[in-house]
Design a protein that fits this description.
Number of strands: 14
Largest sheet: 7 strands, mixed
Number of helices: 7
Bound molecules: zinc ion
Strand content: 25-35%
Number of domains: 1
Structural class: alpha/beta
Order of helices and strands: EEEHEHHEHEEEEEHEHEHEE
CATH class: Alpha Beta
Distance between the termini: 5 Å
Oligomer: single chain
């Protein structure tokens, strides 16, 4: 499994980073985890052909995590001339919120016939499903976004990729990341405690219990970015490639 951070930033472009977007390539599938508002720009920047992506998993329905989907769908229609189906996976409410986003940003765009099918898969928490060759288990976390927020545990190529999404500390993260080959974890703050988000100090206190083999911090705000040199864990960068 090969993962590339196309976007490793928070919602507000801290550090000049793009919104959350990770490209994952396995023997069976090429997919995105998250498609934040800037993700089409990030794909162009890193020369990723969006037609190669069959599936997008979004953790929750905030603009910096799913707000790039309208542009990705319209790019498929107008520029990339997509014909292959695009499967969008996320929590219950994804379909309705995507329609609303498309109508606000590009009125009429949600009702247009295209040369490719956009399939919405709203999946329930705590159930393992395999979608387009990707086996994933979503877990409910603690984050306020108008729909259930998920963390994900992916199993591909005999490896486990775990991702916290955005959340304050919750014990469900133990199941998400336990023994994972790679855990990608939110670290919006360094030590400041804010409801619905993770800070590095809180995460650090539970990393041994999670027991992931490798940890990469992402979604870093200004306070955390100022401390990147002070932590032993790896931190994400836009464009960083990781072999899992
Ligand atoms: Zn969020």
């Amino acid at each position: 499994m090969r993962l590339r951070f196309l976007g490793s930033g928070d919602a507000f472009g801290s550090g000049g980073r793009f919104n959350a977007c990770f490209l994952v390539e396995t023997t069976a599938s090429t997919f995105l985890v998250e498609c934040g508002a800037s993700s089409m720009i990030a794909m162009r920047r890193f020369h990723v052909n969006p037609n190669r992506i069959g599936t997008v998993f979004v953790s929750h329905l905030h603009g910096d995590h799913f707000g790039g989907l309208p542009s990705m769908i319209l790019d498929g229609q107008f520029y990339s001339r997509r014909t292959a189906p695009l499967t969008l996976v996320g929590p219950p409410g994804l379909g309705e919120r995507l329609t609303q986003a498309m109508e606000v940003l590009f009125p009429g765009s949600s009702k247009v016939e295209r040369k490719f099918v956009t399939e919405i898969r709203e999946i329930p928490p705590d159930q393992t499903v395999t979608i387009n060759g990707v086996t994933v288990t979503p877990y409910t976390v603690q984050h306020l976004c108008g729909a259930p927020p998920f963390a994900y545990r992916f199993a591909c190529d005999d490896k486990v990729l775990a991702y916290t999404g955005d959340t304050e500390w919750t014990e469900s993260l133990l199941a998400v990341g336990r023994g994972a080959d790679l855990l990608i974890a939110e670290a919006l703050f360094y030590e400041r405690k804010v409801k619905y988000h993770l800070d590095y100090a809180t995460l650090k206190a539970s990393l041994a219990r999670i027991g992931a083999r490798r940890v990469i911090l992402t979604h870093m705000g200004p306070e955390m970015l100022a401390h990147v040199g002070d932590v032993p864990e790896e931190t994400a960068e836009d464009g960083k490639v990781v072999e899992v």
